[in-house]
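Hi Y.,

Following your request, here is the sequence exactly as I used it, all 128 residues.
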Amino acid sequence: MPYESFATAPDVDWIKVCGEWPAPAQPGEGRGMYRIVHATRYGQSFVYLQWIVRDGNDSASEVHTHSFETINNDHAEITLSQMNCQPTRRGIRFTARAESGHGDRAFRITIDAGHKPGDVRFRTTQRR
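Below is the corresponding structure, written out as tokens. Let me know if you'd prefer a different format.
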């Protein structure tokens, strides 16, 4: 499901600004930041990673939004909890506990994002 489906409440239930990225310096532009958007619809989670830039007036605009096909599939029936995001030297790391409605599987997801918009590594780890 595309991010535009969740652009407004009530589906969006968690937004986290999670560190800064070195946005290209343009006249009148300020810093760049990462933002994680979590939404819930049909009893499942949808998560998006955004690269945002603030201009000289502190207005924000989206540079890039990354969707995660594994999670954001409306038939995945994945629910995220224990969501955490922290800056790293090379970007950010988002982690969460994921539960699948297919077979009651639980696993962890890790998303590492770099400074270049769209530079993302997604991986899962089975819970022991």
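The chain has a mean pLDDT of 86.

Thanks again,
Q.
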